[in-house]
Amino acid sequence: MNHTSFSAPGSYRHEQKLALLLCIFAIVLAVAAPRFFAPPNLAALARSMGVFLIISVGMLNVILTAGIDISAGAILAVVSVILVRFANHGMAAPYVLLLALGTGIALGAVNAVLIAELRIPPIVATLGTAGLFRGLLLEWTQGEWEASIPAWLNALGRPRWGRLDISVWAAFLVLLASGWILHRTQLGRSLFRYGDSPLSAHRAGISARAVIYYAYMSIGFLTALGAVFYAAQLGSVQGNAAVGYELTVIAAVVLGGADIFGGRGTLLGTFLGVLLLCSLQQALTLLHVAAFWQNVATGAIVLLGVLFSAASRHAKHIPSQSGAPA
Amino acid sequence: MLQRARFLHDIARSGRLTYHPPWFSAFRILLQELAFRVSSPQLLEIRSISKFFGPTPALRDVSVSLNAGEVLALMGHNGAGKSTLVKILAGTIRQDHGEIRIDGRLVPQGVPAAQRAGVAVIYQDLSLFPKLTVAENIAGGLSGSWSYSAGQVQRKAAAILEKLEPGSTLLQRLGWSVKDLPLAMRQRVAIARALAHDSRILILDEPTASLSMQDSDRLLESVRVLASHGVAVLFVSHRMSDVRRIAGRYLVLRDGVIALSAKADEISDSILTRAMFGQTEEPSSPATSSRKALSPHNAAPALVVSGATRRGEFQNISLSLRAGEITVLTGLTGSGRTEFAESLAGLRRLDGGVIQIFGNPLRHSGPRSAMRAGLVYVPEDRLLTGLFTGRSVAENLLGATDHLRARFGFLRKAVSNPSQWITEHNIRCQGPKALLQTLSGGNQQKVLLARWHMAEPRVLVLDEPTAGVDIAAKAEIHRRLRQWADGGAALLVISSETEEALALADRILVFHAGRLVMDSPRSQISPEQLTAAMLHGEADDDDEDENASRGAQ
Fold first, then answer.
1. If 0-12 CB within 10 Å is exposed, 13-18 middle and 19+ buried, where does residue A169 land?
2. How far is B175 from chain A (nearest CA, A)?
3. How far apart are CA B534 and CA B205, in angstroms?
4. Nearest CA in chain B to A323
5. Which chain B residues are Cβ-neighbours of A5 within 8 angstroms?
């Protein structure tokens, strides 16, 4: 009964392993690069995690429903360009922010319509919209850079309330809110149920439509929120921003123990996945490892982390023939 | 109601000598109807429901009522409209005509509305959430509250289980994922979930189809307990024996209309069967009639297993199968019979022992080498491991025998014509291109059998070939198996039904706790002996004769 007191379905075994991996990593770092633990470096680590974490929570929502959102990178680019363009044209800050977040939700809704109404598989639908959004954006910007941002937006990319970036505080709030929705509301629970077995969910009276709209609109909203901080931190944006960003996000969520076939995943795991990927990146930069080796290391750690869980999980499915399908 | 009034009026007119004007009888019926509603509102009333899929009617004018505490068996062969009726009651599909009332109140369409009205369905596949915990599955979906807490769900699930089966082992497993539970336990989770919704009408869809005898006994017992607490039960089943033991009333559907509705004690099995299949196509009694008397001596051993062992699953199994014979392997779930069969098929590696096919030792490197040697294994779980449900009938027919038709990996033009196989095996479908998932369970099973037939097996191992199919399809499958045996194949059929074992077998093997405890010709076994061997693993008195005859081969 010891693991039944947790609020999430299933146990936290994967998260424990991931935490162990992080500890080992930290010990290695303490020897190899003690500078890693200097406060400025930790603040930089937190700064690199904020946007990443916000979008990863959105991706977790989608992956829980056995879906995926390939268009997150494109949405990030579209929203940040819209944000900066309108801000530079002198539109007032609250309106620009509303416009940006609204755009994110609307683009998420486009995905949801394709998936829920036209029944296009999520990977195909979002692959299509990724190209669509990005292409329209490039057509609109004609490849031009928005090289400057207004002061108020710049301020959003700075530390505040202690040494931490505003994006980190925002990510913290997003985690709290998502935790509440995922574990304390019928809607949140139905994400798990629908992802686990759509047929069972249908028979239990869960609306597939509500689940899908919520999942894709939430990632749209969270990506837009991330885009605000992304633009604020970078200080300039262009149509080709954040290409392939969604893949890193998916990697982090999967590394965090979310089942790519839906129905299982935790916020804690997603947090740990993001933390592991970001600190690895940070440490390798600190150790002056070349960028392509960084990619290799990131890929390897994702596979390693996933092997922990996936290997044990899927091995079980094949030989146990005595149990009929549930 | 108007229809019923008219109908009764007609009867009144034809049956009576005194003539009443039409309005009189209508008026009287109206009065009766009102009085009836006031005095004893029936828990569930289904009134003249019809449902069409395209132009074909799935249900026509079906009316049923159900009282609290009553168990009504819903029977009928595949495609008779049982599952349509269940789906309508559950709210997953909408009826075209007619209405459903619970406590006299109209139930609107939709799953949540049906649940609120007290309807709970336990589907054949249980429709649980495999990755979620037991507690989540039981109490997680309770509607009504927006806010939700895991602790609350846990406590609620525990309370429900305590009520249903005090001291249940499930109480210790509230935090387990459902997929890690054995099937029988999953079913208890499904029942507990139904209770969690304070359901007053419980619909069970083929609940015993995939359970061992022991487990289905326990299930029937808990259904009885529920009924005694005032739950109305609609029990959908093919298994006559289960229905006989539990139902107070029968409702038989045939081609979407009610073929029979009667109290249990008024009806014989033969009337029931006739109602299900119509007078013309009553299934002949399974295979026994066409059985050839084969003496063990004139048949050569096709497959010889000696000392087969897999640690923790079965020990030191020695047996032989003869060409032209059907051998039935039976035993309780968990006795190792499925594991043994999978080892024969090359899906599991033996820790020790030898398998010989027609004298040649079989060196297993997987199912393909077994197939080359002429051994074919048809798995128990046809939907998961046997068939590709999203593919066409033709592809499923040819799918597993590709390598027999291939040269260096390139497929030669199909040697056989799928439509010919479809007619030959009496598969009901819209043609070779129809998707397999559009076929009924029995017909899917026939596709699987036809596919293996194509591989021209000399040794055929079938795990529960008739699980979850209706009597007609079962008889058809039995006939087919007998044909193959007559054609010179050696068949090993795994079955958990003693009736099936006795009806089908030339020879019966019983596994108990991983050991072979009985190996005798059918003629020397009584049903009592068989059950005893299955339950207690008692080798019967013929054991020495057995060994003697085995040694003599």
1. middle
2. 5
3. 27
4. B183
5. 151
Taking alpha carbons only, the member of B15, B34, B18 closest to residue B26 is: B34
- Identify the closest residue of chain A to B174 by CA–CA distance: A4
- Which of A185, A200, A205 shows the shortest C-beta gap to B146? A185
Going by C-alpha positions, the residue among B256, B244, B209 that lies closest to residue B83 is B256
Q: Which of A3, A65, A183, A189 to mutate to test the interface with B (most CBs of B within 10 A)?
A: A189
- The tokens describing B326, both together, are 């059907």
Where residue B60 falls (left for φ over 0; alpha for ψ -120 to 50; beta otherwise) is beta
Across the beta sheet with B119-122, the strand order is B119-122, B201-205, B232-236, B71-75, B249-254, B257-263
What is the residue-wise DSSP string for B398-421? HGGGHHHHEETTEEPSPSS-HHHH
Cα dihedral B400/B403/B404/B406 (nearest 10): 130
Helix (H/G/I), strand (E/B), else coil: B528: helix
Q: Report the SS3 class of residue A98.
A: helix
Q: Hey, of B94, B124, B129, which one would you mutate to test binding to chain A, going by the most A CBs within 10 A of its CB?
A: B129
- Nearest CB neighbour to B385, from listed A183, A196, A321: A321
What chain B residue is nearest to A8 in terms of C-alpha separation?
Answer: B150
What is the distance between the alpha carbons of residues A55 and A171, in angstroms, rounded to a whole number? 9
CA atoms within 13 A on the CB side of B335: 25
CA-to-CA dists, residue A174 to A51, A52, A181, A265, B27, angstroms: 11, 12, 10, 16, 67
CA of residue A43 relative to chain centroid, distance: 20
ipTM over 0.85: no
Strand order in B301-310's β-sheet? B314-322, B301-310, B352-357, B360-361
| Shortest Cα distance, chain A CAs vs residue B130, angstroms | 6
Q: Which token pair is A53? A: 């974490």
In tens digits, what is the pLDDT along chain B, a chain of 553 residues?
455 555 555 544 444 445 556 666 666 666 655 555 554 557 888 888 888 877 777 888 888 888 888 899 998 876 678 888 998 998 888 888 888 888 888 888 888 888 888 888 888 778 888 888 888 888 876 655 555 677 788 888 888 888 777 777 888 888 888 888 887 788 888 888 887 777 889 998 887 766 777 777 888 888 888 888 888 999 988 777 788 888 888 888 887 888 888 888 887 777 777 777 665 444 444 444 344 444 444 456 888 888 888 887 888 888 888 888 899 998 877 788 888 888 888 888 888 888 888 877 877 667 777 777 788 887 766 544 566 767 777 777 776 555 555 555 555 555 556 777 777 777 777 777 777 777 776 777 777 777 777 767 788 888 888 776 667 777 778 888 888 888 888 889 988 877 788 888 888 998 888 888 888 888 888 877 887 787 777 644 444 344 444 444 3
Interchain pair A321, B379: CB under 8 A = yes
Contact A203 B111 (CB under 8 A): yes
Q: Is A85 on the interface with B (CB under 8 A)?
A: no
CB contact under 8 A, B131 and A263: yes
Tell me if residue B524 falls in helix, strand or coil: helix
Q: Do the Cβ atoms of B459 and B376 come closer than 8 Å?
A: yes
Q: Does A326 touch chain B (CB under 8 A)?
A: yes
Q: Do B131 and A7 touch (CB under 8 A)?
A: no
Q: Look at B132 and A10 and tell me if their CB atoms are within 8 Å.
A: yes
Owner of token pair 């479809």: B422
Those residues with Cβ within 8 angstroms of residue A31's Cβ, 6 or more apart along the chain or in another chain: none
Q: How far apart are CA B463 and CA B345, in angstroms?
A: 11
> Mind telling me how many Å the CA of A193 is from chain B's nearest CA?
6
Judged by CB atoms closer than 8 Å, whether chains meet at A4 and B342 is answered as no
